[in-house]
Amino acid sequence: MTYCLAINVENGLVFCSDSRTNAGVDQVSTYSKMYRFGIEGERQFVVLSAGNLGTTQAVISRLKRDIKDGAEQSLKTVESMSDAAEYLGEVNRAQQEKHSDNTSANFEASFIIGGQIQGEKPRVMMVYPAGNHITTSKDTRYLQIGESKYGKPILDRILTAKTDLDTSALCALVSMDSTMRSNLTVGPPIELLRYEKDSFTGQHNRFDEDDEYLRELKKAWDARLVEAFVQLPPIDWQPQSPDESHEA
Amino acid sequence: MTYCLAINVENGLVFCSDSRTNAGVDQVSTYSKMYRFGIEGERQFVVLSAGNLGTTQAVISRLKRDIKDGAEQSLKTVESMSDAAEYLGEVNRAQQEKHSDNTSANFEASFIIGGQIQGEKPRVMMVYPAGNHITTSKDTRYLQIGESKYGKPILDRILTAKTDLDTSALCALVSMDSTMRSNLTVGPPIELLRYEKDSFTGQHNRFDEDDEYLRELKKAWDARLVEAFVQLPPIDWQPQSPDESHEA
Questions:
Q1: Which of A20, A62, A247, B161 is 20 to 30 A from B8 (CA-CA)?
Q2: A68 pLDDT exceeds 70?
Q3: Which of B37, B153, B248 sits opposite A150 (nearest CB)?
Q4: Exposed / middle / buried, residue B222 (Cβ in 10 Å: 0-12, 13-18, 19+)
Q5: What confidence tens digit (pLDDT) does each residue in A9-37 have?
Q6: Which residue in the set A43, A150, A229 is minimally distant from B170, CB to CB?
Q7: Alpha carbon of B46: minimum distance to chain A alpha carbons (Å)
Q8: What is the count of residue pairs from A and B with beta carbons less than 8 Å apart?
Q9: B3 has a chain A CB within 8 A of its CB
Q10: Strand partners, A18
Q11: With contacts defined as CB-CB under 8 Å, which chain B residues touch A181?
Q12: A242 lies in a domain?
């Protein structure tokens, strides 16, 4: 399994990904799921991947080769983030179809692509296995691929357009931590990338399994939550009304 | 869908359930999923239900009838919580099998049964469609049925054996709120029951859709979380190393 997410707030973008891949529970490996492409000062892309590892690796190779070969369409030539997502969708579909004929195996893969092209606002898109894509909105500031449920509530409670980049990054790490606790097939190293609007460069951190900061963050967050409960309005309990109980 | 959970801490038990049932998205109704049985001062049971509504209603009817008819085995006669779960499992299986022959429809139902019998500790069990059951442990203080993923992280971060009953109850409400935000087929009224060890009675609250307290709690919790982020250790960002970026 996988958990990747991207956040789009007014000041920029945040990307976060785990690095665990597995086929069953006893074939577990570590692969980065975060790829960066760009021309410093001109265009920056971050791609996050989920799904069949053969497909995601083939897709990323193709993206690199198209750039290297000076292909008509590549991340170097696309004119908008929306074109970039369209292009990634086509590559994704082509790679899946290559092997789908003679087997019932699942070659599906999903991607998140985000970044900024000079003259455009920063944007984030999610590319489905079918090749189509969606983007964030005023009300929905994030996109997720993979095991998305455990880490969703904290994003819903915290993220708005005005959330600053550092809080967004912390929120992504807490969301990732919630997911790792509950799904063993999501695991470290964790990669985190912070992209400030109009910077056309990024800041990237990688947290290994025994990372001191990640441990400290987890501990601090757990402690803050316990404290938060103390400040909540107390429940005004009603005695159990006897007529609602079924006398045994 | 459904979300029900039960918490087992040293001082007692907490039960929480939603009340939405649906077949598709345009056939939505409200049914309580929390049932109480007991003899004040002697034995108390709380049953939470998830799954096929025909099955859960038939199971609860049968539990009531067995008590009323003075059957050899009923919640009035079982000698332990474990026997109670075994009995509920048999009733559940029998009701599912009644209709399963001529259709591919899914009649499965799951239950949580918790409570206390004089002379025993309070206990909580989860009864599977197959009739078997599991209970909580020293490390796992809660059980969930239905849409369990969204509400799980907060339970994992907060609950220990020593958590007091009021915090446990607030934690259950926050877990329920997280789930309701993310899954439309989990909805109010929310029922909450607090059982103090050796009390052999309970306190029960029901929160409707427009409940003032629930709104206040949600607002307070969101505010506390935003504050909590401010106190977290800041990330020590590394500049993006150019050799790791793929030049477009």
A1: A247
A2: yes
A3: B153
A4: middle
A5: 999 999 999 999 988 888 899 999 999 99
A6: A229
A7: 10
A8: 186
A9: no
A10: none
A11: 153, 156
A12: no
- Asked, for residue B235, whether it belongs to a domain, the answer is no
**Cβ separation of A221 and B238 shorter than 8 Å?**
no
Angle at A34 between CA A29 and CA A39, to 5 degrees: 145
pLDDT at B247 over 90: no
Give pLDDT, residue B53.
95
Q: Which residues of A touch B158 (CB under 8 A)?
A: 225-226, 229
Digit-coded pLDDT (tens) for B211-235: 999 999 999 999 999 999 999 999 9
CB nearest B235 (choices: A75, A169, A228): A169
Q: Does an H or E element contain B22, and which?
A: strand B20-22
- Using a CB-CB cut-off of 8 Å, the residues of chain B touching A152 are 150, 182
Say if the Cβ atoms of B74 and A248 lie within 8 Å.
yes
The Cα of B133 is separated from the nearest Cα of chain A by a number of Å equal to 21
pLDDT tens per residue, range B176-215: 999 999 999 999 999 999 999 999 999 999 999 999 999 9
Q: Indicate yes or no: CB of A228 within 8 angstroms of CB of B236.
A: no
CA distance A101 to chain B (A): 30
**Domain span at residue B160?**
3-230
Element (H, E) at B145: strand B142-146
Please give the pLDDT value at position B3. 98
How many domains does chain B contain in total?
Answer: 1
Domain annotation covers residue A29: yes
Report d(CA B30, CA B214) in Å as an integer. 18
- Residue scoring higher pLDDT (B185 or B246): B185
Residues of A in contact with B194 (CB under 8 A): 237
What pLDDT score was predicted for residue B240? Answer: 65
User: Facing residues of A109 across strands?
Assistant: A51
How many other C-beta atoms lie within 10 A of the C-beta of residue B140? 13
Tell whether B242 is covered by a domain. no
Helix (H, G, I), strand (E, B) or coil at B167: helix
Interhelix angle B212-230/B165-182, nearest 10 degrees = 90
Helical pair A53-68 and A81-99, crossing angle rounded to 10 deg? 130
Degrees to nearest 5, angle at CA A12 with A7 and A14 = 35
CA proximity to B181, closest of B206, B154, B205, B204: B154
What integer pLDDT is reported at residue B225 of this predicted model? 94
Residues of B in contact with A36 (CB under 8 A): 240, 244-246
pLDDT, tens digit, 9 for 90 and up, residues B106-128: 999 999 999 999 999 999 999 99
The yes-or-no verdict on residue B70 having pLDDT over 60 is: yes
- Distance from the first to the final alpha carbon of chain A: 47
Tokens 């909540």 locate to A232
Residue A117 sits in a domain of what CATH number? 3.60.20.10
pLDDT of residue A238: 80
- In this prediction, residue B164 has a pLDDT band, given cuts at 50, 70 and 90, of very high
